[in-house]
Model the fold of this input.
Amino acid sequence: MYRPPMPTRTRFTDRRPLATAALAALLAGLLTPTAAHSAPRESRPVHSYENAVREAVWVDTGFDGDGDGRDDRVAVDVVRPREPARQGRKIP
Done:
């Protein structure tokens, strides 16, 4: 009876690259600017939410998750500011 050879394990004897990577990760975490760890700033709205353009659309997912033979659709509510459109600017 033929038995395939057992896989051999690779042993890493030189651990310097691993130690160097660990030290670099530790130093990167300790030497980050203190501003990154400060309290988050509050954002303020730029456009009016009351005058926003609201649309409801269906998006085809291209996936048949329930197995009924048809691609699934997802309902999406789009809310975008009206002001840029009035100024002639296109927004996503």
